[in-house]
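Tutorial sheet, problem 5. The two components below are modelled jointly, 916 residues in total.
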Amino acid sequence: MTSDPLVARLRSSLGEKAVVTDPDVLDSHRNDHATFCSAGVPRVLVRPASTSEVQEVLRASSDYGVPVVTQGARTGLSGAANALDGCLLLSTSRLNQILEVSVEDQVAVVQPGVVNSALSKAVLGQGLFYPPDPSSWEMSTIGGNIATNAGGLCCVKYGVTGDFVRGLEVVLASGEVIRTGRRSVKGVAGYDVTRLIVGSEGTLGVVTEATLALRPAPEAALTAAATFLSIEDGIAAAAAVMAAGLRPSLLEFLDGPTARAIQNYRDMGLPADVGSLLIAQSDRGPRAAEDVEAMAAICSAHGAVDVAVASDAEESRMLLEARRLVNAALEPLGVTLVDDVAVPRSKLVALLDGIAAIGTKYDVLICCPGHVGDGNMHPTVVFDRDDPAAEARALEAFGAVMDLGLALGGTITGEHGIGKLKRQWLAQELGPVGLALQRQLKSVFDPGNLLNPDKLFL
Amino acid sequence: MTSDPLVARLRSSLGEKAVVTDPDVLDSHRNDHATFCSAGVPRVLVRPASTSEVQEVLRASSDYGVPVVTQGARTGLSGAANALDGCLLLSTSRLNQILEVSVEDQVAVVQPGVVNSALSKAVLGQGLFYPPDPSSWEMSTIGGNIATNAGGLCCVKYGVTGDFVRGLEVVLASGEVIRTGRRSVKGVAGYDVTRLIVGSEGTLGVVTEATLALRPAPEAALTAAATFLSIEDGIAAAAAVMAAGLRPSLLEFLDGPTARAIQNYRDMGLPADVGSLLIAQSDRGPRAAEDVEAMAAICSAHGAVDVAVASDAEESRMLLEARRLVNAALEPLGVTLVDDVAVPRSKLVALLDGIAAIGTKYDVLICCPGHVGDGNMHPTVVFDRDDPAAEARALEAFGAVMDLGLALGGTITGEHGIGKLKRQWLAQELGPVGLALQRQLKSVFDPGNLLNPDKLFL
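Model answer (structure tokens):
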């Protein structure tokens, strides 16, 4: 028995097992993967199993004036899924059904708690492809991907999560349900509320169903990897690959400090004076071999000191290894604080030069891997956890990187979102009129400010 | 001299020549290309030449409580640009500058009055490609394309206007200016207001600048055209082309009545019992020939009685001729009322069967060309202008087609928008909760309901 009337009501609506108040379980659900974001102590965790149960939860939260934080796999990197004191955590873990995969319409209809890799594998079994592939894809959920408009490695060719969301079912703060968008490829009936929900980080409603676009599965990708002695050469080669219309299905960049950290972690045969690495893929089937040869030739023409081209899937995997090792290689060096600026590609050299200067100014190591084809970099400040002075400098450097991104005509976040982490810079990026407008849009959906309040806006 | 204080204020702000009250000019600006949409008598037409002049106009309209209808080239098909009695018409004709084309960033920055074809040609000169190609592309403006989220022929491969809009400068009803979105490829900072403006038909603000994504120019497309004896075979062949992952850069369908009208207008060698035509293109350069052969083989395998494959650009143009002649061929038959339903591809045969039944029921000719790869059809009701009874039946048939599209899980508009023409069906498509939410979103942007009121919502 509980003395909490909200808990009693939820148990009555959803059943005992769907409502959790065990402090240990609640404690384990306080945070997502963001570092340096505070999290509160939740009042209760609920696991609704249907749209109507989500409606019950939101009606109860509204009646009791209790804020709701929706959580998928909590792999986010900006604290958007962090608990607030006294909040209700709404887990999508039981809303985990793939409701339909249509080969003819090339769509999937899923509940939000479906894990990205589960969907990807299910549709691949039918010759189809769900492209959005955030690094967290083996853990993160489609609902979380929608909430952050997640990107990934292959969005340089295919686009981000939002480009694959046709329509949504959403429970509003009032408990009412809307269906947005469509199942058809095209549709322009009214305002694009689907896109407004995508990337809204749980502040506008709870997504209970998504209709997702799929594509015919491409063939396995082939890889080329090139080593440069400078940042400029690597960036110029990436720009030339994009300009050539080769449509790489992956185009990743590692700067010198990142490459050296990887070489120290595992011998990849990289020279001590490595300036940058570029890794490119093509998945254009019969043309992939020709594409990667062309990309390799572009890299050579831009001063690459070593260029490797894979002739099969296994060699391709090996050439991608350096990219995959980034997190593992940086982890022994200290605490990492991952930024997510995106700039026009023409500003990438200025961004990387500026980041080096910021590292020097604040006396911290900043490694800079990134999705260079999209101009989306992840400058990663690395520092000693046991040194409070280093931590303070790291946080200042983290902010300076965002200021630099904005000064270069870019954005403070290419794919990770605002959450709690970047609220003060959102105000800077949007300006006062834009920010006020966004707050008003939230009020339309959530007049009581109960859906993930304290996120996005300061 | 004028006795109208609004006109006097506008002349003082914008100059004499930018403010038009000549009744003949006003009369010529009352309508867009929609048929069967009423239009009011405007009070004044203004042609601002800068963002700050647009701000002046909106401040004046706000102060005088005068509704504003923004007009591009008035090629829209839903009456969204039609005048209201006593309104101010805001023409974007002098906001017609291409401000920048960046080869490195693959973006263009343009004012809204730039004509689509002018932009397309300007960027092609630099090896770049702006894909959105509504049929009106030689006349329609980028601002109008954004206002309607215009589609076109090549969106089956490349997507619609909204997929190419990175960021906007927008003047709000208050006269304040916001910048939405970004110049970088990716960005998730805050709600996607850019996408909310795209397709909003002039009801949320006045776009004064757009940053558009470009792509490297593809090579000239090659064409295949196939003739079938039934609708089912043509639709099945189209589905098979899409399922094969061939990525056609155009995939158009003409049903039997449309094909026969074209054959009567000009001898294309089509059989009298033609059931449907399919026209497909590939622009994949060296692979295009292989692609169109593969598409032709798919058509043959699906029962095509005649398949032609172009070996060069001139032959490709000739094979597209039938598609280009649709409007000219239907025009002599009577007044045309063009619908714009889009359904999941799996429902296309049901849609076409249902449309035939609607034609029979209401005793009108309905021709059905369409963008079959996207499931977006343009069922066109044709009737005798001098027969009021036929007109009434045609309007009923027009509505019945939308009801059918909705019943098949589709949308009432794939690319033309709601305007005045489809307001009653928008309510049906969105449902009461969704519709109320959209009205509230408008109120955030336009609390005085002065921006294109009387459009979208009844």
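Marking note: The two ends of chain A are 38 Å apart (CA to CA). Full credit if you identified this.
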